[in-house]
Structure prediction request, 372 residues.
Amino acid sequence: MATALFCTFTSFGLVIPVIPRLVTEELHGSAFQVGTAFTVSGVVALLVRPYAGQLAQRRGSRPVMLLGAAIIIVVAGLYALPLGLPGLFAARLVMGVGEALLFTAGSVWTVSLTPTERRGQIVGFYGLAMWTGLAVGPVLGEAVFRSGSFGAVWVTAAVLPAVSVGVLSFLPNSARLGTAVSTRLLPPSSVLPGLSLGCGAFGYAAVASFGALALASRGIDNGSLLISLFSAAYVSVRLLAGRVPDRIGPLPVIVVSASVEAIGMVLIAFAPVLWVAAVGALIAGGGFTLLYPALALITIDTAPEEERGAALGAITSFFDVAVGVAGLLGGALAEVSYTATFLLSAVAVLGSLLTGTAAARRRGRYADVSVS
Prediction:
């Protein structure tokens, strides 16, 4: 399952350094349209993720993950069609459907197999497959593009999810909950954790969408390195500290994660040379990494079993929507100043402190009520 997720998210990461070039150089678009290209997938994912969680609980996770991977293969074909900016935006919308189905169904599967005392760690490791793909993908995409063309990138982006389909085909299906599944699209247990994750996502969105462009505007080359460094720090810290949310609880993790990520955003905002921006990307990625498992742990602990699929899907939808909003706002600000884009992200990231603290306190009250 982790292998399938890794291959698919490597395909997503593959196009991150290529899409800004495609929009600005080939399609003669603007920085705002670059942000829009990274935004549109979040719009459809907002609606699809909760349904994906419900579908996985009713039908089992494997067929839902297979459907998601197949859709992502189609996306690579859409990239290759000469349909201009509307075609690119359509491809990104379809990508949101595939990604929502694949990741959310896998999350439900992971939780169903995990002992209670290790949920934070195992959910975190599941997310590692995603972020490792996002770390490897941009490096691979840059290499493929420089040695080939846009077409070579699109072919590679199709092969990777095809591997996922092959891997998933050999896995047994997961258990189903059938009629016990809730029909709520936005369970109450997902709202505060989702808002906190969404605030933290502003940092990732800024680095992915505008990191390379921001450095290029200052005459600094190799800006595409920032998203790889962000993702590499995310993976490394998660491996070293994956059990921290289980051991000390979500609240201190949320406070440290948000504060550190915001510092990284500020460094990138004012970086005069590559190494300063690189340090900022490493700090931001290392800060952001434990936010999701801490918030997922809160969600799992406060959601009834029949709502867990929808709740996990919903909090990840907040991530998608925040990436979309960050892309639009950041793109608009980028027309004036990339520094403003990253400062906005730093302020938004600090919003995780408020919403995440409220979510953790709600978990504490829920636990007290359950015990009594």
